[in-house]
Amino acid sequence: MIEVQTFNTVWDAISDTQEQAANLQTRAELMRQITIIIQAKEWKQADAAVHCGVTQPRINDLLRGRVSRFSLDALVNIAAALGQRVHVELKAA
Q: Nearest to residue 28, comparing CAs of 44, 12, 50?
């Protein structure tokens, strides 16, 4: 018989530790919010790159959701370049 594992989130399923899962989830959420801003402004990738202070290939990675290619630091810097302030809130798991 095959043992079935269940997880609270997809991040828990693909991570080895709770810490890694939390980091991935936070990065994904920041990427989602940055993507929403870029789409709302209707910027092409090259325009978004200029506004975000990164290269067009980095914007492409961001818009395609390539979480593993971004650190929290990098995403906070991109958000700041867009005039956003990142707020961290802790919630009990």
A: 12
Query: Can you read off the two tokens belonging to residue 55?
Result: 């290269």
pTM for the model? 0.87
CA–CA gap between residue 39 and residue 62 (Å, rounded): 12
d(CA 16, CA 50): 36
Nearest to 20 by CA among 68, 63, 75, 62: 68
- Fold classification of 17-81 (topology level): 434 Repressor (Amino-terminal Domain) (1.10.260)
Task: Name the nearest CA neighbour of 64 among 21, 39, 29, 31.
Answer: 31
pLDDT tens profile 33-51: 999 999 999 999 999 999 9
The full set of domain ranges for the chain reads 17-81
